[in-house]
Amino acid sequence: MFVVVGVSGGVAAYKSVHLVRLLILAGHEVHVIPTQDALRFVGLSTWESISRNPVTTSVHDDVAQVRHVALGRAADLVIVAPATANTLARMAAGLADNLLGTTLLATSAPVVVAPAMHTEMWLHPATQHNMATLRGRGVHVVGPGDGPLTGGDSGPGRMSEPEEILEAALAAVPGDADLAGLQVVVSAGGTREPIDPVRFLGNRSSGRQGVEVALAAARRGARVSLVAAHVDAQVLAEASRHPRVQITHAGTAMELRDAVVAAAVDADVIVMVAAVADYRVLKIADDKMSKQGQEGLTLDLIQNPDILAALVRERRPGRTIVGFAAESATGDELIEKGRAKRRRKGVDLLAVNEIGWDKGFETPDNELLILNASDDVVARVQGSKRDVANALWDAVVAVRDHTHPEKHSL
Ligand code: C5P
Question: Which of 226, 229, 228 minimizes the C-alpha distance to 191?
Answer without folding.
Answer: 229
